[in-house]
Amino acid sequence: MASFQVLFALVFCHTLSCYGVQAETIVCEDISLSKFPFCDQTLPYNVRVKDLVDRMTLDEKIAQLGDSAPGVKRLGFPGYEWWSEALHGVSDAGRAVRFDSVTPSATSFPTVILTAAAFNESLWKSIGVAISNEARALHNVGLSSGLTFWAPNINVVRDPRWGRTMETPGEDPFVVGRYAVNYVRGMQDVEGFLDTSDPNSRPLKIGACCKHYTAYDVDHWNGVDKYHFDARVTERDMMETFMYPFEMCVKEGDAASLMSSYNSVNGIPTCADPMLLSQTIRGLWALHGYIVSDCESLKEMVIAHNYLNNTPADAVARALKAGIDLDCGSYYTSYAMEAVKKGKVKVVEIDKALKNLYLVLMRLGWFDGSPGNYAALGRSDVCSTQNLELAAEAARQGIVLLKNDHDILPLNFSGKRPTLAVVGPHGNATSAMVGNYAVKIVCRYSTPLNALGAYAIVKYAPGCSDVKCRDINGFAAAAEATKGTDATILFMGLDLSIEDEALDRLDLKLPGYQDTLINSIANASTGPLILVLFSAGGIDISNLKNNPKVPAIVWAGYPGAEGGRAIADVLFGYYNPGGRLPLTWYPADYVNHLPMTSMQLRPVPEMNYPGRTYKFYNGATVYPFGYGLSYTKITYTITSAPKLVLYQLGRFQLCKPIDSSNGTVPECQAIVVEDLECEEMVNIVIGVTNVGIRDGAHVVLLYSVPPSYIVGAPIKRLVGFQRVYLRSGESLQVEFNLNGCKSFSIVDADAYELLPAGEHSLVVGDGEVSAKISFMFSY
User: Fold this and answer.
1) Where does the Fibronectin type III-like domain lie (predicted)?
2) What is the DSSP letter of 66?
């Protein structure tokens, strides 16, 4: 019997190409289908897709509208699984991907919030390429039945308590949008086919999906959950913040899909709002792809939102008419027939949804094969040495040095092999480093404990059994472990038991007795003490920031399965940290001043609400957005910048007033951006010099500051960033070429995008250097 099982396993393994490549799915290679026009490669995609849809009965059409499409048995047409996840690596969190004993995993990259901290667009794109390679490889060997992956998450982090902060690129809509563009391009682009005359025929490597559209960042807080939440948002905030990354994702990233969110916006569930969906995504932004609902959100429209007392058939009709092509769930497949029979929806609207879906599958090569020659990708391309190193490099680039008194870091013991005390619940972290939407089994773990063991003799005492640190029972042993050591490294912070989907935070503090443990170790330790924090959202560590007994603090986000060696490389100086915080770290009492459910970004004086994000909050911070230290010292100079930008106006271009203070204002205060051709570019060159003794990467952040007479404008906003590498003593000229309209406009209270006249400023970093530029209009 045993020998039979071995033989069966070998045969099964050969069938699935356990040690090599099987082949990508190519529907039209089936001889029974090749006779149909929808498999005729000489015809345009839209003609072929119409032929396929026209051949289906209404029952067959409706069956394909769910995320697990069964295909059309009568035609011999195969089914398709739409739901796969790839937030920071291919995951088996969806329906389409599974792993086996030969390939049990895929590469675990850092969570998005840490990758975003690198402020490196080429890194973001490289990760997208690596993940899509693994996705194609898994598809080729039969471990993935789909090529559509519902990532990235590009919701802006409006409130520091949000549990899904780790999934996002942070609080700045421009950074979030640039991340989306690069990640999506890395996942989707087929080399040699970046530009086509018909975007709906442009080949795709895999299909990305930007989610969750829109104004979504409340999961479960004080009894309010995402299924019931109605986000009351001004049009100004929608345009300026919540919609902006999605617009970039569609227009510049050419994403194959957008996913609607569970919440309502201003009383209408997002999956039922034609203004948000068909009119904006398709009409204004020209999406070349499909729109999918978040899973079971049509059901939540009926049950949680009780929207207009809709029946399930009503909800299906509303979603189809609004522009939802695919239902992640069962409502379309269960109730679309009833909606048609009762005259609530036309069959042509179902046809339109199916055409949008099958056009994407055509572009993915599911019908004909891909021109990208991905058939050679196989198991050896999953968890490859190259991808594991990229994961470690992403973690290194994102790690942020928050404090480094007396240049305690990097650790240097003059050639001696030191003895380190490693203390804290994350000292031997494994799954905590990986975050959510991750594979169940990783390729391998590089834990902090093991990685530091490559540099030193390590004594380990966790102090707390987990991050909730409910008691002090392990404190004495932790203090004892520090005796006789050359340095102590504390690994503290949060994990998925504190912040996660469906788990928003109630405060911004370290959990339980963590503060007590840190202070007790700081008092007991005789050598240097370094605090390493795992978290997505900010933590109020003001007391530790100001404690001279804690001379060094490092934020490591959730660094992925390779995180241990990335952290060790930074601590020992083999990598000079260059990450910058993609979030504001607020003091703990910030959350006492406004509920998480208030969507306003600007301060609300009559309610004593402070502003949100660095653009509108001017109060005290623990650490500001964009903060990050280095082991070297960088200086800036403005090499060149224009003094004046002049716009010639036509006779029908009218000036628009702006809400302004009592100061001197220009006669023509602003022009509506839509009325301008917006061809004027502002070129600024910044001299960046490494005047320190160490080589390293540095992130140059460039902000625009609007004229001071304008009321309600952002304090500043990021308009450009570049990560550069400089050797000790090296200078570089870093150039930014900014579109005058895009980089210097504001959105007024009436939701007009305006270009204001007057003196604007461009500020580098924390204001080390700046340039003033006057914008003027002339008839």
Assistant:
1) 698-768
2) B
Return the CATH class of domain 632-778: mainly beta
So which residues are the catalytic ones? 294
Backbone φ and ψ for 614, nearest 5 degrees, come out as -60, -20
- Alpha-helical segments (H) within 81-232: 112-116, 121-140, 173-188
Tell me what pLDDT residue 652 has: 84
No. of helices (H) and no. of strands (E), the chain: 20, 27
Whole-model pTM?
0.96
Measured distance CA(562)–CA(232) in Å, rounded: 41
State the pairing for strand pair 529-534/487-493: parallel
Predicted local distance difference test score (pLDDT) of residue 22: 55
47 with 332: CB under 8 angstroms?
no
Assigned CATH for 400-577: 3.40.50.1700
How many whole angstroms separate alpha carbon 596 and alpha carbon 509?
A: 16
3-class SS at 321? helix
Please give the Cα distance from 25 to 75 (Å, whole number).
Answer: 17
Encode burial over 724-748: b for 16+ CB neighbours within 10 A, e otherwise: bebeeeeebebebebebbebbbbbb
Beta-carbon contacts of residue 615 (< 8 Å; ≥ 6 apart):
172, 601, 714, 715, 716, 717
Percentage of the chain modeled with pLDDT above 90: 94
Q: Strand, helix or coil at 648?
A: strand
Using CA of residue 269, residue 274, residue 275, residue 277, what is the dihedral sign?
positive
Could you give the count of Cα atoms lying within 13 Å of 72 in the half-sphere of its Cβ?
19
Beta-bridged to residue 77, according to DSSP, are: 72
Nearest C-alpha neighbor of 211 from the set 120, 290, 319: 290
Pairing mode, if any, of strands 400-404 and 552-555? Answer: antiparallel
Q: Amino acid letter at 74?
A: R
Mention the CATH class of domain 2-380: alpha beta
Q: What is the b/e burial string over 574-612, where b = at least 16 CB atoms within 10 angstroms of the residue's CB? A: ebbbbbbbbbbbbeeebbeebebeebbbbbeeeeeebbb
Contact indicator for 700, 734 with CB cutoff of 8 Å: yes
For the chain, which residues make up each domain, given as ranges? 2-380, 400-577, 632-778
